[in-house]
Each structure stands twice: as C-alpha cells, then as structure tokens.
Amino acid sequence: MTENVQAQLDLLIKRYPELKVCKESIAKAYKIIEDCYKSRGKLLIAGNGGSAADAEHMVGELMKGFKKQRKLSKDFSDRLIEVSPEYGKVLAENLQGALPAIALDGHYALSTAYMNDCEPLLCFAQQVNGYGNKGDVFIGISTSGNSKNVIYAAVTAKAKGMKVIGMTGEKESKLSDICDACIQVPQTETYIIQELHLPVYHALCLMVEEENFE
Question: Could you give the residue range(s) of every CATH 3.40.50.10490 domain in the chain?
C-alpha cells in the first residue's frame, strides 16, 4: 500500500474512530480490488434496498472522476480525434478514466424476466454468471449478511474463480463465511450499519483512485 493510499485509510479511521476494528479488513478488501484492476478485471456489486443504492453510489464513484479529474492519456485522446476530428475533440476533452464496475440491481428487463421465468432469489447470481470472469470481484452489501440473493451471487462468484468482498454489520453471517474479505462494521441496527458503510466504500474508492490516477 502506497503512502497516499495509506493516508486515505488513516483519514477514514481518524474521522470514524469506531471503524478502527475494521482497518485490517478494509485494507484486505482494498488489496483485492486493486489486484483486480491491475489485471484489468471489474467489480460486480449488489445489495437490497438501501444497500442497492449503496451499490449504485459506489459504481458512480468508480466509473468517473471522484476527487480527481482522471484525464485521458494523450494516446487515447489522439486516437479519438483521428477517428473523428469533430466529435473526437469533445470526447478527448470530457471523457474521464474509469474503474470498471457494474451494480446488479438496475437491469430491470433482465431481472424481472429472470424472476418471472426462473427463481427470483437468483437474479443477482444470474448476472454474476453472465458478467463474471475469473479475476473479477463480487462485492455483496448486506446489513445482516444473510440476504439470500446476495449469498447465491457470492457462491456463484466463488465458483467462477472470483474474489468476494462483503460489507455487513458486526455479527458473523453466512456471507462472512464465504468472503475473502468481510468488512463488518461495529453496529447491529440496519440504518446505523448503512451509515457506516458509506464512509467505508468512499474510502475504498478514494484508495483505488489514488493508486490508479495521477
């Protein structure tokens, strides 16, 4: 972990001292995510209710600039302009570097078709089966750690050779048993767990942005 990445983790703990108990698991989750991006993999992220919103939020911070502008490389900018001097210039000036991530809650036609035709609790697992490859990472967000649709997706991810990261409350759970890294924030009440999940995934996004973009 570089000095700048470590500084983001230290700042998180300074701002939220109760998360000190999660420092090791957050660092482990970061390493899994960073290794994934270094090997040109992607994140698949899923949750229910407020955790679905968190999945979408996390994708938003990864797929565009978070704190940094993430300017395109000169080589790619030149290729865009070569393809189309008119449109390429606009693209080169405005596109940002992205860290590939997909939230699995938002594909309504696919999800509703699968839930109607097949097994509703496997709607996330079906997407992991379709999108996931060895070297990718599945992030399951579940305050209880026992959301069945998230667990089915985690099992599918492991079977495909993916790493699994969990974000839960402090209790041991079926999800925590499956994970390669599980960030168990020290609360048991759903809304308070969610309040702590947000700064954790913000920190993870800042850490990987720090490592991947100047």
Answer: 3-63+98-212
CATH for the 3-63+98-212 domain, from 3.60.21.10, 3.30.930.10, 3.50.50.60, 3.40.50.10490:
3.40.50.10490
- pLDDT tens across 171-203, in order? 999 999 999 999 999 999 999 999 999 999 999
Exposure string for 24-48, b = 16+ CB within 10 A, e = fewer: ebbbbbbbbbbebbeeebbbbbbbb
Q: From CA 152, how far away is CA 149, in angstroms rounded? A: 5
Distance CA 156, CA 158 (A): 6
Other CB atoms within a 10 A radius of the CB of residue 12 amount to 22
**Mean pLDDT, 10 residues at a time, the chain of 214 residues:** 94 98 98 98 98 98 96 97 97 98 95 94 97 98 97 98 98 96 98 98 97 92
Q: Which of 176, 186, 193 is nearest to 29 (CA)?
A: 176
Q: How far is CA 169 from CA 71, 148, 160, 172, in A?
A: 37, 16, 26, 8
- 36's CB contacts (< 8 A; 6+ apart) are 42, 43, 135, 136, 137, 163
Q: Identify whether the C-beta of residue 166 lies closer than 8 Å to the C-beta of residue 142.
A: yes
C-alpha to C-alpha distance for 63 and 74, rounded to whole angstroms? 20
89 token code pair: 């210039």
